[in-house]
From TrEMBL:
<protein>
    <submittedName>
        <fullName>Rhomboid family intramembrane serine protease</fullName>
    </submittedName>
</protein>
<keyword id="KW-1133">Transmembrane helix</keyword>
<keyword id="KW-0472">Membrane</keyword>
<feature type="domain" description="Peptidase S54 rhomboid">
    <location>
        <begin position="47"/>
        <end position="197"/>
    </location>
</feature>
<feature type="transmembrane region" description="Helical">
    <location>
        <begin position="65"/>
        <end position="83"/>
    </location>
</feature>
<feature type="transmembrane region" description="Helical">
    <location>
        <begin position="89"/>
        <end position="108"/>
    </location>
</feature>
<feature type="transmembrane region" description="Helical">
    <location>
        <begin position="6"/>
        <end position="26"/>
    </location>
</feature>
<feature type="transmembrane region" description="Helical">
    <location>
        <begin position="120"/>
        <end position="139"/>
    </location>
</feature>
<keyword id="KW-0645">Protease</keyword>
<keyword id="KW-0812">Transmembrane</keyword>
<dbReference type="InterPro" id="IPR050925">
    <property type="entry name" value="Rhomboid_protease_S54"/>
</dbReference>
<dbReference type="GO" id="GO:0004252">
    <property type="term" value="F:serine-type endopeptidase activity"/>
</dbReference>
<dbReference type="GO" id="GO:0006508">
    <property type="term" value="P:proteolysis"/>
</dbReference>
<dbReference type="GO" id="GO:0016020">
    <property type="term" value="C:membrane"/>
</dbReference>
<dbReference type="InterPro" id="IPR022764">
    <property type="entry name" value="Peptidase_S54_rhomboid_dom"/>
</dbReference>
<feature type="transmembrane region" description="Helical">
    <location>
        <begin position="145"/>
        <end position="169"/>
    </location>
</feature>
<dbReference type="Pfam" id="PF01694">
    <property type="entry name" value="Rhomboid"/>
</dbReference>
Length: 209
């Protein structure tokens, strides 16, 4: 863990800040309504723009937090390391940009769709973490991931199944999960990775040729 703290300072800051703020709101639930994304309010009061960021730093409960932080730990630290290998010190900045910009982009569809729904709230880092995961998959498409945390499956197949499920769930599921954020976070991660490293496309294709 000490190596990760030294080699991946941005991922370490995100990791610690997300856990710390989530634990704080667990003990101080009155902060949920202040920090969660509420499209209805944001549409009418642009001074609440910070909700886009603060909502990505808090979680609903322990299970939500643990699942997201486990995913970020396994892929976020590794991805920042890869960015540094590709771009030197600038890689830290590029990793931060990918995370923050993806967090914003993943919420845009929700802001549009729910702007007139006063009862809709959203929280969690899932959009940005999906971006991190899919960026990682661009560089390591044959890495083995755990479907349902148990079944081994190659990363590229997981990506197709995940995107298909998100598209279906966004239209059909009624489970209080923001599937739009997952879908558009993943797409943002792919798009930004290609923008930052255009050669990642040829690298991805070379893994299957």
């Amino acid at each position: 863990m000490l190596y990760y703290l030294y080699a991946t300072p941005v991922a370490s800051v995100i990791f610690v800040l997300t856990i710390g703020l989530s634990l704080y709101v667990f003990s101080n639930p009155q902060w949920y309504t202040k920090l969660m994304l509420h499209p209805y309010t944001l549409h009418r009061d642009k001074s609440k723009w910070y909700m886009v960021f603060t909502s990505g730093l808090i979680h609903k409960d322990w299970m939500h937090l643990i699942f997201n932080m486990m995913t970020f730990y396994y892929f976020g630290f590794g991805l920042e390391n890869m960015f540094v290998q590709f771009s030197g010190v600038l890689g830290h900045v590029l990793f931060a940009a990918l995370y923050v910009v993806s967090l914003i982009l993943s919420d845009i569809p929700t802001l549009i769709r729910q702007k007139n729904n006063p009862s809709y709230y959203s929280l969690g880092a899932s959009g940005a973490i999906c971006a991190v995961l899919f960026s990682f998959i661009m560089f390591q498409p044959k890495a083995m991931l755990g479907l349902f945390m148990v079944i081994p499956i190659p990363a590229y197949l997981f990506a197709f199944l995940f995107l298909g499920y998100c598209i279906w769930a966004s239209k059909k599921a009624y489970d209080n999960i923001n599937h739009d954020a997952h879908l558009f976070g993943a797409l943002a991660g792919l798009g930004l990775t290609i923008l930052l490293y255009p050669w990642s496309i040829s690298h991805l294709l070379s893994q299957f040729l």
